[in-house]
Amino acid sequence: MQPFTKSFTQQEPIPNAAIEAAVEVMRTGRLHRYNLAGQEAGATAELEAAYAAWQGSQYCLAVASGGQAMSIALRAIGVRPRDPILTNAFTLAPVPGAIAAVGAEAVLVEITEDLVIDLDDLSAKLHNSQPKALLLSNMRGHLADMTAVSALCAEAGVPLIEDCAHTMGARWDGRRSGSFGAFGCFSTQTYKHLNSGEGGLLVSDDPVAMARAIMLSGSYMLYERHGAAPPADVFAEIKLDTPNMSARMDHLRASILLPQLADIETSITRWNARHDALADGLRGAPGIALAHRPGAECYVGSSFQFRLPDASPDTMRAVMAEAAALGVELKWFGDPEPRGFTSSHTSWRYMASQDLPQTDAVLSTLLDIRIPLTFDVDDCAHIAAILRHVVARHVKIAA
Ligand SMILES: *Cc1c(COP(=O)(O)O)cnc(C)c1O
Description:
This protein is of the alpha/beta class. It is 39% helix and 13% strand. It contains 13 helices and 13 strands. The strands form 3 sheets. A 7-stranded mixed β-sheet has the order 1-9-8-5-4-2-3, with helices on both faces. Strands 7-6-10 form a 3-stranded antiparallel β-sheet, with no helix packed on it. Strand 6 (171-172) and strand 7 form a beta hairpin. The protein is globular, with a radius of gyration of 21 Å. The chain binds pyridoxal-5'-phosphate. Pyridoxal-5'-phosphate is lined by residues 65-67, 91-92, 94-95, 137, 139, 163, 165-166, 187, 189, 200.
């Protein structure tokens, strides 16, 4: 078996148009979003307008990170310290972190073998936990039945906030991820669908909640210099009651993001070609289970997950070691030791420990591969061949 040699963490270079736009911002010296000359809008406000238009949302706010987008969203809908907040137990550390940042308490909801929130457990916890919100994390790009999630939240009178760090550009039944709840939260951190190093975007159709979010992001009294903000009179009600959390995005990052946003549909097509090559290469392989992707879901395949349902922890370790020896870097979500990015609720000891047997069983055999766009479709077929080979050996050993 020919080893794979490319890096799983190498992104594409920033496009030339973005580099030139960033250099232009630096030449002006006006990097702060409210540092504007004359009537210029500034790159940050331009990004907000362009993102709102692309996403199909009324309002958009650019912020410093995806984590900040989520904690601002929670505060903007009125979450207070000690409020219970539901979130799916399979997510990344910034999600429980955003809940902790507002002093609220995460109540974790089970996931299914298809890596989405379990609707039965959600329904039970919506009714039994007195939650102030559901912060739904579309972890690794898998969308739950958003029609059902929205209906359950509406029926329980619980606001929905969507963490779309992995679903920027995805749709459920034709509707964009991030447009189902009170807020959609996006990240423009390097490993997501747009790359500004760090950064975040928050969208909403609710004028009062968005006015609060803008004040929270640290807009001083300069909220009229935004690209997709509610009218100034909406701020009159709330501007003196909303603290400044200083989480603004600057012109430098926004200038890098604008040309990338213009090209995002092409990136999505490229990601899905790579993702689907991996999925096609592994579908039906003995010992390997793939998540079912419903017909209503249009995903963005920037990463790929599969399970080895019969594997013991020792087998998981052996498969990872052999894949690594052939150049394929896998992330195991069931690793008892937190390594790299953490996604196990047992690694988050700042929150109450919770019993999630179903989630633990799924994560114990779940593996993940990043798909940077520096891979081509043949690379993904090659990775799939390596994984089939490695897993087949262990399926045989077990038999
Ligand atoms: C990356 C990520 C975020 C946000 O991350 P930031 O680094 O704060 O921008 C949120 N949720 C998930 C699931 C993520 O992977």
